[in-house]
Amino acid sequence: MPNDTLIAARGVTKVYQTKDGPVESLKPLDFSIREGEFISVVGPSGCGKSTLLKMVAGLLPTSGGMLTLAGKPINGPQRDVGIVFQSAVLLAWRSVLDNILLQAEMRRMPMQQAREKARQLMAMTGLAGFEGKYPWQLSGGMQQRASICRALLHDPAVLLMDEPFGALDAMTREKMNLELQRIWSQSKKTVLLITHSIPEAIFLSDRVIVMSERPGSIAAVYDIDLPRQRTLDMMGSPEFSEYAKKVRAHFYSQGILDH
Question: Which domains, ranges and CATH numbers included, belong to the chain?
Answer without folding.
Answer: 1-80+158-259 (3.40.50.300), 90-155 (no CATH)
